[in-house]
Design goal:
The chain has helices spanning 8-21, 34-44, 47-60, and strands spanning 190-191, 209-210. By secondary structure, the protein is mainly α. α2 (34-44) runs antiparallel to α3. The N and C termini lie far apart (58 Å).
């Protein structure tokens, strides 16, 4: 039986297994369970299977595990990747405009030149992530962890960065015009003369360092 043709009985059995584990808080596991592995394979089969994989993950109460997946150049516009684990994934120049990445884990992922315009990345884990030349215009990054992220030449115009953590991030030549940086942590973030800040924003007072 292939993942694309899971019977109702199989889904029910997996759901029971998932329910048995839900007594403990959800956490990132270094190894995937059988259910997570099946859902991963189903999702990676292509666009026709992604909604089914998402629904199955939600039914079982498990995280969509896409660690290390090669999604370079993929069309993922408005995709539901909320809570997904994309640690180390290759999303080079992928199109994620309008995607839901709420609470997603993207540590060490390659998002170079990726289109994330108007995407929802609230609470996402983006520390040490490659985001240079990425389009994050109008994105919701409230509460996101971008510590150590490479945002060189990234477009963050109009982005919601309230409460975001940008400690040590590279913001050289990035555009943050009209971005909301209320409560954002910028200690040790690097910028240069070509970095465009919101009107009347003082990066030095926020702890950023000019290079």
């Amino acid at each position: 039986m292939t993942p694309a043709h899971l019977t109702l009985a199989a889904v029910a059995a997996l759901a029971a297994a998932g329910a048995a584990r839900r007594g403990s808080p959800a956490r990132h596991l270094p190894q995937m369970t059988n259910e997570e592995r099946k859902i991963r394979r189903l999702w990676l089969e292509g666009p026709d299977h992604r909604e089914q994989a998402r629904e199955l993950a939600d039914t079982l109460g498990v995280r969509l595990m896409l660690e290390g997946a090669n999604l370079s150049g993929a069309d993922l516009r408005e995709a539901d990747l909320s809570g997904a684990d994309l640690t180390g994934a290759n999303l080079h120049v992928a199109n994620l405009s309008g995607a839901d990445l709420t609470g997603a884990i993207l540590r060490g992922a390659d998002l170079y030149g990726t289109n994330l315009s108007s995407a929802n990345l609230s609470g996402a884990k983006l520390c040490e992530t490659e985001l240079s030349e990425a389009d994050l215009s109008g994105a919701n990054l409230s509460g996101a962890d971008l510590s150590g992220a490479d945002l060189e030449e990234a477009d963050l115009s109009g982005a919601n960065l309230t409460g975001a953590v940008l400690h040590g991030a590279d913001l050289r030549r990035s555009t943050l015009s009209r971005a909301d940086l209320s409560g954002a942590g910028l200690t040790g973030a690097r910028y240069d003369v070509d970095t465009i800040w919101p009107t009347r924003f003082d990066p030095v007072a926020a702890g950023a360092i000019e290079e």
